[in-house]
Amino acid sequence: MILSQILETSKTGEHALGVGAALASAASWAVGTILFKGIGENFSPSAMTLIKSLLSVLLLAISLIFVGWTTVPLPSLAWLILSGLIGIAAGDTCFFAALRLLPVHQLIILMMLAPGITLSLAILFLGEMPSPIAWLGIAMVMSGVALTLSADLRRERGGRGAPTGLVLGLLSVLCMGVSVIIAKIGLNAMPALQATFLRMAAGSVGMLVVGSAKMQLKGWLAPLRDGGLKWRFALAVGIVTFGGFWLALFSVKRLEVSVANTLLATEPLFALPLSVFWLRERPVALAWSGAAVAFPGALLLAFNA
Asked: Less CB within 10 Å around the terminal CB: N or C of the chain?
């Protein structure tokens, strides 16, 4: 009886840690996205992915010196490398490309499609099955996203980049959803910090190969000669590396993928007000209404999956 109570308390504590980590990760991604938006005009999307990944690898390597390294089984290593190539090299590049074409609030609300995509993949590949209430949450999230995007698209006048930005944003969501499912498989055998390092290293190598093949590495790194820009980029990378990537995997390790990814999709709750006060964006009323519909749906999905 006592043992069962201890185990139940431990599970509750793990769940609470996972929920807290996911929400903190969402907030970190909101801040990081705002920072990247401010410096994105100086870098190509591929350059931003490469530099962000290399700086993240350096920060994570320093952290691992203090916390130690565990043996990595080859199957787990393979899954994490694949996850890094899809989620970091491909997904982040699409994300940064979309960020140049769309307002921050529109892109981040588009990211709220991630729970539905990830949940579908989790059902197919991990055997997770949501409750009827969770399906209601998915419907609310997707309805809120559709409402917000339709509002912004109606407002766009002569914005030729909007359709392309939406396609790139959707590709980013798809890549990140697939990479989370793959990472979940490899996470079971190691700490989240180490798994984050391996994913980021795989993404870095992938981008180095692409840059070398295109003979564009020198051009990608050229904007770093601007000292002020370099430090702002480093600040953004530090926030998303530990607050975004590591806390995200920390939550995925302790929660069901569908629950963790839904909580991670609450980023608009933090990003919408930041985009207004920081970047002076002005989302229309329907955009706020879409967020108001989608956010409760995300919470419903998180706690009833």
From this structure: N
Query: Which two tokens mark 233?
Result: 């980029």
Kindly report the CA angle at 197 between 109 and 209, in degrees rounded to 5?
85
For 15-56, how does the pLDDT look when each residue is reduced to its tens digit (9 = 90+)? Answer: 778 888 888 888 888 888 888 877 766 778 888 899 889 989
Half-sphere exposure of residue 33: CA atoms within 13 angstroms, side-chain side: 32
Distance, in Å, from the CA atom of 123 to the CA atom of 125, rounded to the nearest integer, reads: 6
Q: Which residues contact 181 (CB under 8 A, 6 or more apart)?
A: 118, 121, 122, 125, 126, 257
Q: Which DSSP string do the residues of 174-209 spell out, in sequence order?
A: HHHHHHHHHHHHHHTTS-HHHHHHHHHHHHHHHHHH
Contact between 139 and 297 under an 8 Å Cβ cutoff? The reply is yes
Other Cβ atoms within 10 Å of 23 Cβ, number: 19
Q: Please state the pTM of the whole predicted model.
A: 0.74
Q: Among residues 238, 259, 105, which one has the least CA distance to residue 180?
A: 259
CA 117 to the chain's CA centroid: 13
Distance CA(198)–CA(70), nearest Å, equals 12
